[in-house]
Write the structure tokens for this entry.
Amino acid sequence: MRVLFIQTPSMEGIAHERVYPIGIVILAGSLHRKGYEVEILDMNLEIDPFGAVKKKLLSFRPDVVGLSFRNIDPLANKTSSLVPPFLVTARLVASIMPKSWLIVGGAGFSLFPERLMREAPQIHYGIIGEAETPLPLLLVSLENPPPIKGLCMRRGKRIKIVVPSTRLAMAHYGRPIRNLLNPSLYSGNNDYVPSIGIETKRGCPFHCAYCVYPRLQGRRLRCRSPRDVVNEMESLNKEYGIERFHFTDPIVNFPSDHIEAICREILLRKLKLKWDGFMREDYFDEKTAALFEKAGCECFSFSPDGLCQESLDVLDKRLSERDIMKAAGIAAMTDVISVYHFMVNVPGESKRTCDKGLRLLERVYDKHSRKKNLGTVVLNNIRILPGTQIEAVARASGVIGPETDLLYPTYYNPKPFDAFRYRLETLHLCRNVFLRQEVR
Ligand code: B12
């Protein structure tokens, strides 16, 4: 059986930062090991993405097409949507290969499964969440599948959904077979983020009010063996010359002993690799920061999100302003770049919280001013996603109503602080410019 995986457009254009589509490479690898004939097309690499789909369909003539829909929209306060190119891809596949089965998955699909199945009647099946176990089960039962974990199927006009799996044991993690999609195609393009992702674990036990990670991967932490993680990095380095990696975990420095073991393994093998990932401030201390730096960490990505204690509490971050400043102080003493992500105009924003937020941002800049090691500060409004605490707050307070279509970009940004972001951005840009130009 021939299976073609297609990564549908994840960003607005070819020039954007590229992300190697690790999800479909893992799935293609597991099917390849079972004897399926598999190919992969990433539309994000193509100047003419729809033309490339047509060409690949006609040359490979797949029995099954698996569409991976990763990003619903580009976030970052943008109002453009990636739903239209996804829907058009589904239509194109169905019209060129009307006899092929069309199956959909990916993070974007998993957030709006029923809605997307209705928008695209061409889709035969969807799989919510991780698909290593469900997909092979579906492929051997396409005519009449049993209730496979995460399966979305049509029953007349209804869409039937089976509860997804968040249980894949990492001892059975099927490493992506990278030669199914050459990682070198992703080299030399990105300025900010390493294009090659490595999973060290799945799952997130935290409760951040806006976040869908626990829904996508479950709350239970499932860690890969540190040796297996480093084996993967080492072989990518040897085979493809890859030197920079992004750890895709929701939080890379929790549990601490796991990432520490990975670092020690990197050091033991004397690998000269660079990596980054998202870190929580309350698990970040002098000792781990020094170990991370020694083991090749090139960027501490922090996402404290709240700019003051009230905001941290409303976002259910379970962090304090003190945690943020302490971590900033430690990070600022290293030679590693730090990046901070904050959310602006969160529920409960007031003149007082805005002032506190401006002051906190100043203090973060102050910490980094000596070594000039602050990469950037990212300031966003919250994208309201279904099933989150923020959705409930937004509904209860009338920020969104029954008619609001969350499938398309919807941000939590009510008046009167809807322009607060620009004040913060002015401060951020000003401090950045003055820091780099060495003007006081
Ligand atoms: C790591 C990560 C990043 C890293 C990627 C670095 C790298 N080199 O890989 C960085 C920080 C760069 C990043 C950037 C962005 N990201 Co991001 N990212 C993630 C994160 C945390 C993990 C993704 C991952 O690799 N998972 C591991 C792989 C193995 O899982 P997977 O791809 O989901 O695949 C599994 C299943 O989905 C399924 N599956 C996948 N495809 C298919 C296809 C079929 C047919 C089937 C059956 C199943 C299936 O099976 C796979 C194996 O189990 C997710 C959140 C999450 N926990 O999922 C957000 C997430 C995917 N990102 C998201 C977004 C929006 C973005 C950005 C647009 C944000 C921005 N403005 O910068 C950019 C887009 C970048 C791009 N070019 O695509 C959103 C997408 C949903 C949404 N809200 O639209 C998520 C869910 C986070 C969120 N905020 O909600 N991201």
Remarks:
- The chain is about 35% helix and 20% strand.
- The chain has a mean pLDDT of 96.
